[in-house]
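Practice problem: Adenosylmethionine-8-amino-7-oxononanoate aminotransferase
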Amino acid sequence: MHDPKLTDALAFDREHIWHPYSSMTDPLEVYPVTSAKGVRITLANGQTLIDGMASWWSVIHGYGHPRLNQAAKNQIDAFSHVMFGGLTHMPAMDLAQKLVQITPDGLEKVFFSDSGSVSVEVAIKMALQYQQARGYTRKNRIISLRRGYHGDTFAAMSVCDPVTGMHQIFQGALPSQIFLPAPETPFGEALLASDLDALERTFKQHHTEAAALILEPIVQGAGGMRFYSADYIRHARRLCDQYGCLLIADEIATGFGRTGQLFACEHANIAPDILCLGKALTGGYLSLAATLTTDHVAKTISQGGAGCFMHGPTFMANPLACAIALESVTLLLEGDWKSNILRLEAQLTQHLAILKNHPKVADVRCLGGIGVVELNAPCELKRLQPKFVEEGIWVRPFGKLVYVMPPYVITDEDLATLCQGIVRVVTSL
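Answer key — structure tokens:
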């Protein structure tokens, strides 16, 4: 059915609206959405797509969950926003209390911000202020892992992989950080001597200028969807303690159960000094992030020269987002989320295994609610995206990777349909 208004709107979109990582002179096709419910996205032409992306890791409970809808309605009827400078409110207090309870031991202080990238900015500023307050003014750089990805704002970009991290064109304008080789030890295995040597060598060489080490625990996301050994994180924790560096865990993508533990740090049985959360925090309803740290770090910063932590977003601790986030976390913890994630892992492993020996496929790997098909060569998004839509699934590949992280509520039947669609598209390459 032809809709002139929609046709005009799409023409405007193509000419005037910049989509993520897209060109304004040769934009990719976009698909107009009219509604979303459960794991299905409905397009303007009436077609429904099974969502394999959970809207970039965030919509863990599916779209339009009645309890999250009700939490939003209840809060918006009271007030949707007040400034957090000099004021506070129950949604922020209740959510902060819940986060302190469920995150690794020792993370007692909660700083709210608007997005995952900003939570990383906050973490880096915390590390720098902490070292300054201790009198270590030369410790003003961050150690990061190659193949890592931490966001699109400037400090976050500086700790992304300088080659594969999507931000290499900004290298001259970004702070110069210290990069470790990407860990090579697979998840579930004892640390390779080469990985340990690289860790120890980097700390020994750079500890006098390193304020912190930042890493994505267990899963390197946009840098390659790589799963690596928990042993690596344990040794990183030990070396941070040995050399007076803070450990920042970026769990924006991995937090809230995605890897099979509530937080990926728990695979290594360690607690970071600073923890970044976002994405699934609100169940995908609104943008909200949190940076948690220890009492020691917070007190050291607060007793430093500035006398306070120098950050304060306008929409910090937005009450509407906090109310939804509290309900989302409560909903997750009320269910048997761990068994459910194991179900997803088993189904993804079973359905995608058929591609392991395909000549165009380099690797197939699954962990928790994450399934990855790595191709031998980069895939052309413009050509591949319509094929997935034809299959009735929403999958957004990048580089060599065709990957999924579906909503936790997806049924076995829908997950099978999602995976079978991926197999058909990859097989057709």
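Discussion: The longest helix spans residues 116-133. Students who identified this feature from the tokens alone can consider the problem solved.
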